[in-house]
Amino acid sequence: MWDVSNTTPDNPLEGMSYPDYRDLRDKSRSFSGLAAYRLTTLGAATNPTAPAQIRFAALVTDNFFSVAGVELSAAIAGAQPVAAIGYEFWQQNYPGSRSAIGSALRLNGIVFTIVGVAPASFTGLDRFVRPSIYVPLGMAQRLSAMPADPLEDRGRHDLVVKGRLSPACRENPRRRNLP
């Protein structure tokens, strides 16, 4: 996996906006797949009457798991209130029970349906933060209660983008090109 980012004179480590990610994903021939995510914290409760606990989460693009090489039983896509949970979260809250799939999970007061569990070998794409929960990036506006959709703000550079080089670029590095 390769890190893909915007750089500016003011900030050499800047993230990418969703419109910039979308443009790059749609036009790049150097990558066989590009995925984006944003790390955040969410109030999570596995029981409707239980108090929420703060958990690390990743808001992810529809193709996040496939680009990461991880198979889930169902897709996390669009602006649907669905979630995948990390293996440790599954073990702690559902003691490895398959009944977790289809269960309700309250995140920031919104009821989500658990549609998958990440394998034990997958701890996310960030080397310092291990998300407990993965939700569609399309839910960002509802989860943050923002009046405008943050995904359409080209000036908001808060996404981390990772990519897999295309087979042609892996074989011949001189063929790498970015739009």
Question: Quick summary of this structure?
Answer:
By secondary structure, the chain is α+β, with helices and mostly antiparallel strands. 18% of the residues lie in helices and 29% in strands.
Strand content: 25-35%
CA-based gyration radius: 17 Å
The overall strand count is: 8
Structure class = alpha+beta
- Count every helix, treating DSSP H or I runs of 4 or more residues as helices: 5
**What is the arithmetic mean of pLDDT?**
86
Q: Any idea what the shape is? A: globular
Distance between termini? 19 Å
User: What string gives the helices and strands in order?
Assistant: EHEEHEHEEEHEH
- Sheet bearing the most strands, described? 6 strands, mixed, barrel
- The low-confidence parts are none
Q: How are strands sequenced across the largest beta sheet?
A: 2-3-7-4-6-5
Instruction: Name the helicity range.
Output: 10-25%
